[in-house]
Amino acid sequence: MSAGWVASPSELLMKAATRASARRRSTVRRRLTLIAGLAMLFLAIAAITLAPILVSQPPNTIDALNTLAPPLTPGHLLGTDQFGRDVLSRILYGGRIDLAIAFGATIVTLVGGTFIGLVAGYLGGRWDSVLMRLVDLFFAFPFLVLVIAIIAMLGPSIFNMFVAIWITSWVAYARIQRAQTVVAKRQQYVLAARALGYGHLRVMFRHILPNTASAVIVFSMVDAIGNIILAASLGFLGLGAQPPSPEWGTMIADGQNYILSAWWLATIPGLAIVFVGIAFSLIGDGLADLLRPGDR
Amino acid sequence: MSRFGSLPRRLVHVAIVLLGITLVTFFLLRLIPGDPALAILGSSYTHARAQAIDSGLGLNRPIWSQYGLFMNHLFHGSLGFSYFYHESATRVILNHIPPTLFLIAYSAVLAALISLPIGFFAGLRRGRAVDQFSRVFFTLSFAMPAFWLGIIFILIFSVHLPVFPISGFGSGLIGHLYYLFLPALTIALSFSTVLVRSLRTSTITTLRAEFVDTAQMKGIAWSQVLRRHVFRNAVLAVVAVYGVNLAYLISGTVLVENVFSLPGLGTLLVNSVTDRDYPVVQGVTLVFAVLIVTINLLTDVVQAALDPRVGQEIGT
A281 contacts in B (CB within 8 Å)? Predict the structure, then answer.
């Protein structure tokens, strides 16, 4: 912005001062945000790891005498479903699937997409424009529809869901990392590293990547939520985990049939998704402030 | 350069993307492991039927010629033959388009009605009650699967308070508006998250702009400054976000249609996957992609019409 007409100095000072104090407050709050998020995620991971200790009934054990027991029934804290399977047990064991997807799908696309974006942005030229057209192409499809179409061809299963996510999700990381790299490669520290005679690989991975990775890392937290919701959505549509798997989305789909008589079957697994989602969301917000304080 | 000076370039770009879309949808069928005819026929597999399917899909020709055939059919409005419905896939798909389009438009309007006031006031009264409330609410809804929210709405507004129907499309405009209210609200709420956040940010940025100080010092009433200077500029910045995120909204319709059993493209897509009706899956994917490209193009045009500064950048 050019230096044009400015408000009175005192007013500007006031604006700056309020901004600075707001920033201090928000920094403290965001540290807390990160800690709260990590605590929630740790709690979730501990619960699903310790599932065999926490609940006595395995997730697929049928108990014909105790069907559709409401929550807080003795022995069934969150009630049972139409086959008398314990809802709490199913949620804990099902969480293993959903969290595995969150981590498995996210880490692979984070690493792969970042690598592709880094190389394309650094090299530039023809490969870069081919990649960017490819990225545009992927963004032309609604993400969920593309994933469903790929699963349709491969056949519905958890593994094919991973494959579909891997095929489609790296694109966002590639786009973000490419943009960061294109800016970074013209900066002094990169030119200096090149002037010192460092090779391209070293400059890319030891200089540019550490200085720019915060963007993709912060995005990966948002993406992890997206992947959990995606896994649950596909399970819900019958295109991901298949019954009797206790995957959260399949549980919700199953519970929708009993919505008139047993409200807890469809609602409680959703709360589990929301809990984990908030954890990742808080971690993302906290990381954003920690890694790139200039942004907010 | 005129306001829409770079539109032709943009159209060329769109044509290239459309061509790419046909390539991707064409190659989708290639992902089927093993013999597509076997996958389509399943237990009713006979050699003669398999050969009929192979020649129907053109699978016995070289790949470039298959793509040519696919494109030729496409230009004649044919998306192939639906093996499940035993009629042209184009007709099946066309029958399912109206509910989806209606739902998308309805949710887009609801989303705007919800997020414009909330986002603007959250930005104006930063850190106050409205802001805090919307932050909590939209953090929650960000982590909330749309299909689950839909079920919660059914539970509250259809089961406990029987105000809205549990499923169905209704008839007539009023009927559609009534039947689709809960589905549209479900999609609109998950769509609003992004809109509220970006409108809040752009409101805060606009409030800091020098032209706001100028307007104030000229003696214009604060409410006028807000309405004519701050709001209008803040909303401009959100138009792009709105367009881009309509893609997100389309993913929402696929799920929500299934929750409320609406006879739209999303339900058709999922059913066709289960029925292994590959030409329909291919066709619906194509239709959705074309829809997104159209929406993006419209967004650019609207943005250029609203904001002269954007015109020069389109197409880059």
Answer: 139, 142-143
Q: How far is A252 from chain B (nearest CA, A)?
A: 7
The per-residue DSSP string of B13-49 comes to HHHHHHHHHHHHHHHHGGGS-S-HHHHHHGGG--HHH
C-beta separation of A144 from A88 below 8 A: no
Distance of CA A77 to the CA centre of its chain: 29
The length of chain A in residues reads 296
Per the CB < 8 A criterion, the answer to whether B84 and B284 are in contact is no
A197-211, A224-238, B139-153: least confident range: B139-153
pLDDT band, very low/low/confident/very high, at B107 (cuts 50, 70, 90):
very high
- Under 8 Å between Cβ of A194 and A206: no
Q: For chain B, how far is it from start to end, CA to CA, in angstroms? A: 15
HSE, side-chain direction, 13 A CA sphere, residue B160: 9
Among A43-47, A138-142, B152-156, B306-310, the least confident range: B306-310
What is the Cα–Cα distance from A133 to B20, expressed in whole angstroms? Answer: 9
Q: What is the ipTM of this complex?
A: 0.84
How do residues A90-112 score in pLDDT, each as one tens digit? 999 999 999 998 899 999 999 99
Q: What is the pLDDT of residues B8-62, one digit of tens each?
A: 777 888 888 888 888 888 888 777 777 777 777 777 778 888 887 777 777 777 7
To probe the interface with A, which of B139, B166, B273, B297 has the most A CB atoms within 10 Å?
B273
Q: Tell me, yes or no, if B242 comes closer than 8 A to chain A by beta carbon.
A: no
pLDDT digits (tens, 9 = 90+) for A58-100: 888 888 888 888 888 888 888 888 888 988 999 999 999 999 9
Which amino acid, one-letter code, is at A162? Answer: F
Q: For testing the chain B interface, which of A30, A33, A153, A247 should be mutated: the one with the most B CBs within 10 Å?
A: A153
Quote the CA–CA distance of B295 and B289 in Å, as a whole number: 10
Long-range CB contact pairs, B9-17, < 8 A, 24+: B9/B314, B9/B315, B10/B297, B10/B300, B10/B314, B10/B315, B11/B297, B13/B315, B14/B293, B14/B297, B16/A133, B17/A136, B17/A137, B17/A140, B17/B293
Q: In 3D, which of A100, A253, A228, A293 has the Cα closest to residue B145?
A: A228
Q: Does the beta-carbon distance from A145 to B289 stay under 8 Å?
A: yes
Asked whether the beta carbons of residue A278 and residue B21 sit closer than 8 angstroms, the reply is: no
Q: What is the pLDDT of residue A247?
A: 93
Neighbour-count burial for B58-91, b at 16+ CB within 10 Å, e otherwise: bbeeeeeebbeebeeebeeebbbbbbbbeebbbe
Residues 6+ apart with CB under 8 A from B162: none
Can you list the alpha helix ranges (DSSP code H) found in B232-277? 232-259, 265-274
| Cβ distance of B151 and A252 shorter than 8 Å | yes
Bridge partners for B87 per DSSP = B82
Q: Which residues contact B140 (CB under 8 A, 6 or more apart)?
A: A274, A278
Q: Name the helix (H) or strand (E) containing B87.
A: strand B87-88
Instruction: Return all residues near A231 (Cβ < 8 A) that are at least 6 apart.
Output: A97, A98, A101, A102, A105, A161, A240, A241, A247, A249
- Across the range B86-101, mean pLDDT stands at 91
Question: Using CA atoms, how far apart are residues B89 and B83, in angstroms rounded to an integer?
Answer: 9
